[in-house]
Write a structure and sequence with these properties.
The complex is a heterodimer.
Chain A lengths: L1 H14 L24 E2 L1 H8 L6 E7 L4 H16 L5 E7 L6 H11 L5 E5 L4 H8 L6 E2 L1 E6 L2 E5 L6 H8 L6
Parallel strand pairs in A: 1-4, 2-3, 3-4
Antiparallel strand pairs in A: 2-6, 6-7
Chain B lengths: L1 H20 L17 E4 L4 E3 L7 E6 L5 H5 L1 H11 L6 E5 L11 H11 L4 E4 L6 H4 L3 E2 L1 E6 L4 E5 L15 H10 L13 E3 L5
The chains are: A alpha/beta, B alpha+beta.
Chain lengths: ~180, ~200
């Protein structure tokens, strides 16, 4: 009985959609992974995610688990990932959680809410450089969202209070 | 019909509130602008007017109890005050958040936090949320250095490493104060850092 339960547990973990977008800390030979690994990037390594040149529209949300308005609007971004699969649309959640809270706060949050969008952590102390490089319009307040498709870029330092508010800014990029 | 008018008025009001809540970054005082004097309630219950300090300059910091970034800087804000108040540059901390959205930022909670940490500086409450928009403050913590002529001289971050005080290599606010005290222009006079959005009713 215990064995069967263990088997089910393993399966439900392995099949969880959460794992789809993330690398495991280990993963050789079908071993049971201890924990998921979230990429922790400095700005130089994040930048390629913000400057892709193809026909996909990227929605990059800057957030953190400690940011209440960010957590509140997160389901609207998740809905884009789960419900607009036919569109050339990709959501990237860039977490600004503190490095020492990745294991204790961020990963448990991702697991609890079964986030399907790709999550990376930006850890780079030179915020005075990269905030402007991401957008001169950004003051540094969270949440904030970058929407881009090739060279066409729009930055939104704001909270989205409804799905419609978010969809409105995505709409111009659809069916292009 | 009356109902309809009432509803339309309500909708219009809501829309106006929404528009005013999404104030874009960049509005507010610019470097070199003369700021308006203001009066706010301090945690001791007394009203404080900025010009009453009669200071050489003011380290105005929009901050709060609840934002982890603000909390990470509490000790450094205390150090700033202890280093510069005697030189005529006191810290004037202002909580801009609406406590109906963030109850941890109520006036009573401010009093508690100031006592716990032993804030040596005044901690004012922007209860009507009328002061922070004039400065164009968007986040906590957000620093504004104002000289004795009430001219805005610096906007931005305290230093260049929020998460790790030991690894700070540039102390923007201290460098800017030293520049102003020696008659020079701060360089940089604007910096950016991550912070929590200021909580205002939508």
């Amino acid at each position: 009985m215990t064995l069967v339960l263990l088997f089910i547990q393993f399966f439900s973990f392995a099949m969880s959609p959460l794992n789809a977008g993330h690398a495991f800390a280990c993963g050789e030979g079908g071993e049971m992974p201890d924990t998921m690994a979230i990429p922790v990037l400095d700005y130089a390594r994040l930048k390629p995610y913000l400057t892709k040149t193809n026909d996909t529209t990227y929605i990059v949300n800057f957030w953190a688990t400690w940011c209440a308005p960010c957590v509140k609007e997160l389901p609207y971004f998740e809905a884009l990932t789960t419900e607009m699969k036919d569109e050339k649309l990709k959501v990237l959640l860039v977490s600004l959680d503190f490095k020492k809270q990745i294991e204790s706060k961020l990963i448990p949050f991702i697991e609890k809410h079964h986030l399907e969008s790709e999550v990376v952590v930006l850890y780079d102390s030179d915020s005075n450089f990269w905030i402007n490089d991401i957008s001169p319009e950004w003051s540094g307040a969270l949440p904030a969202t970058l929407v881009y498709r090739n060279q066409d870029r729009a930055f939104h330092e704001r909270v989205f209070h409804t799905q419609e508010e978010l969809n409105d800014i995505i709409q111009p990029y659809l069916n292009l | 019909m009356k109902k309809l008018i009432g509803f339309s008025a309500f909708a219009l009001l809501t829309m106006t509130l929404l528009v005013s809540a999404t104030r874009p970054f960049g509005e507010g005082y610019k470097i070199g602008d003369k700021i308006e004097d203001f009066t706010l309630k301090n945690i001791d219950g007394k009203m404080v007017t900025l010009s009453d300090y009669n200071a050489e300059g003011y380290i105005i910091i929009f901050t709060c109890n609840t934002c982890p970034y603000a909390v990470m800087y509490e000790d450094r804000i205390i150090e700033l005050h202890n280093k510069y108040a005697d030189k005529g540059w006191p810290v004037v901390a202002i909580n801009p958040n609406d406590p109906s959205i963030k109850s941890g930022d109520s006036f009573e909670a401010m009093q508690v936090r100031a006592k716990e940490k032993g804030f040596p500086f005044d901690y004012l409450f922007d209860e009507d949320q009328a002061v922070y928009p004039k400065f164009g403050a968007t986040r906590t913590p957000h620093v504004f250095l104002v000289d004795k002529n009430m001219i805005l001289r610096y906007i931005g971050a305290i230093d260049n490493n929020a998460q790790d005080p030991e690894s700070v290599t540039t102390r923007y606010v201290e460098d800017a104060i030293e520049a102003i005290r020696s008659g020079a222009q701060p360089d940089p006079d604007m910096t950016k850092a991550i912070g929590c959005t200021i909580k205002a009713k939508a």
